[in-house]
Structure formats: structure tokens, C-alpha cells
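Page 42, continued from yesterday. The earlier attempt failed because a stray header line got pasted into the input along with the sequence. Redoing it now with the clean sequence only.
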Amino acid sequence: MTDAWSDRKRRSIMNLCVNSKMGTVFLSSKECSDEAHTSQHIYEYVESCIQEVGPEHVVQIVTDNATNNMGAAKLLKEKRPKIFWTSSATHTINLMLEGIGGLPRFKKILDQAKQLTIFIYAHHKTLSMMRKFTNKRDIIRSGVTRFASAYLTLQSSTFWAGVALCLKVFSPLVKVLRMVDADWKPSMGFVYGEIKKPKKEIIDALGGNKKAYEPIINIISKKMKGRLDSKLHLTTYLLNPYYHYKDPQLQHDPEVMDVVLEFFDTLFAGDLEVQKQVVTIELPKYKKKMDRFGRELAVKACEVNDCDYDPTTWWGTFGGATPHLTKIAIRILSLTSSSSGCERNWSTFEGIHTKKRNRLDASKMKNFVYVQFNANLMEKNKKRKERNMEMLLANDSHTAQEWIVDCGDCDEDGVGIVGDG
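This time it went through. C-alpha cells are written below.
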């Protein structure tokens, strides 16, 4: 996963992290202030890191949906057609929330909520009174993106019916955002299946009123298309037994199956024997629940999608009769669907590049970040195992500035807000 950022001195830096089931690890950074972030430039940086890690270990590249990143994806496909380039699910869902928040009925509510919040926080007596009657709770809750902040802040408010309406519409999407933003569980196998649920929940929340829900559903579908419905997304959707066993008709869905066959055609290009083994022998065994796949324990083990459910463990237990397919399933179901871990790395850069240490060159900064970010990763993994840690919350108030002061879309330090655009 890779992302770009500008520090306080407006130096442009790109970084690249590696994700596995163990979490996200910082690998490399590159100062590119003197170079345009062209598709060619991004591709060359990613390609150099692929060579460092080893192409045989890389399944996908995850970035946001910027045009230059999509151009880099085309260049990579020409050289490495078996490595998939996917759009960050966190960024895509944030764009859905942004689009919905821009609809007139929701924008009015959000603007009113911001005005009220700014008024409360601008007057210390009012703020003190609010905290007194809410047991010292704050309205403002900083999220990792602007629209995550909007949701988290509205959730703290119960001032008028319009807020409740916003929550009913935003909440289903934010549930998915929480899932894809977290590092504690690989999310690739769940994105497509879970993003289908908010559509139904939003329709129900708006009482089935087509005029009310249609603009929202259209935004979700438009942002999803070409981003969260790729060959990788749909193949992991089918190979996740939680969805396959719950919906007997999934295996007969022509839209899903056509894309899954394209996936295997891409993955085994030039090796028709293995492709034939997987597509005509092993995949039907899984679809028809034959051999170990039909055992009662196999069915029970994937009934509930909770914190203990891991589709890769399921395949390792019950996929003995389909060795090729099992290897593929475990590999792609171990993938993340977002570049959030890479984006969170910028707070480490910001902490190291302070006013006292603003003369650090890029190589020294990279070394400092490598040590600190990866040490923090181990500590966060430990804390997440000990208690339920909310990843959607941010460590600072940059993303909540517009809820505190009337400053437009920029934060007070001029630092870019991750996930916008």
C-alpha cells in the first residue's frame, strides 16, 4: 500500500507499507518534492518495492482512487499482470459518505450541526454547561477522515430529528468503514458482501420511499463500481464460506461467476493444466459442498461473522481435497482492502519532523519512522488484543477543525486531510 503526503515545510513524501495477516509494516519512504507525482513516477517507486519484497510474495497494491494512481495501475498490469491493483475501500466509502453529505437535505443538517457546535465550543460558559449536563462528554470526536468526524460528532448529539435521520443513513456505511479501516482482521473477503447490506438498511430507514433513498443508493453504486467490485473483491466474496454457505444462489450469480473465471484466467495465464484443475474440479467441490466442505462442522464454523471467525483458518481445516484452490483462497482472503495503515503512518512522520528536528533529511527520517512506526505497530497489536480498540478515531483534531472553528475545509496548520478528494 502506498500514499503521498506533504509535511509542514511542504516537502512531498511518498511511503510504502506492507500488509499481511500480522498487520501493517512500514517498508520505505521517498522524498519527491522535485518530481511530479505522475503515474510513471508512482509505478517506478512501487515496482522497486515489489522487487525488494519479491514479486512472488505480492498479491495486490492498494492506493486511493486518484487518477495518477489508476494510471500507475495500468503500467503495472503491463509488466506484472498477476499482481492486482485495488482501490482503498476506506477512501471509497469515505467518498460515498461525502457524496451523501452533499445532498441538500443532509447538507443542511450537517451545516446546522456545525454552526451549533462551533457556537458551543466558542463560549467557555456554554461549553462548561454542556459538559456539566452530559457527564463531561464532548460533542467533537475526531475521526480518521472528515466524514468519519462528521458521523462520530453527530452520534454524540441528540438535538433534533434531522441528526437522527443523518445517523440512520450514515450508520450502515460507517459500520463497513470501521471494518475496512481496522488492521485486526483481513477485510478483502468481506468488503463486497458487507457493502451490499447498507443499501437495504438505508431503504428500510427511509421507509421504502424511492424518492428519498434513490439518490443515496445511486451514489453508493457509482462510487463502488470499478473500485470495490474488482476480480479480487468478487473472488474473495465467493471463496468466503460465510457468504457462500448463507446464500445458496451465490454460486449461480452470473455476474459473480463471470468475474471469478476471469480472475483464475489472469492468475493462471499460460498454465492451462492448473487452471483446468482449479476451475473444473476443485471449485465445483467447494460450490457443491463435497468432501470435507459438506461436514456439519464446516457449516457451523462459518455461520457467524464475529471476531473469532477467520475464513483462512476455515480453508486450512476443510480444504484438504482442493489443494490448489485452498492455497489461493488462503492467500487472497488474507489481504487487506484499504491503505489505512499506510495513511496512519503520516502521524509518525509528523511527530518526528518537529520544529526542533526540521533539518532531518529524507533518509534519516525514513530510518526514524521505520523504527518508531513498526514499534508502535507491535504495541497497538498488543493493545487491540487486550481490549476493543477503535481504529476509526484519530489521534488529533485535524479532521474535526471545521466543527470547532469556521475555517472552511482546511485545518489550522495547513496540513492535508487524509482521505479527502
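Notes: Confidence is low (pLDDT under 50) at residues 409-421.
Reminder to self: strip header lines before submitting.
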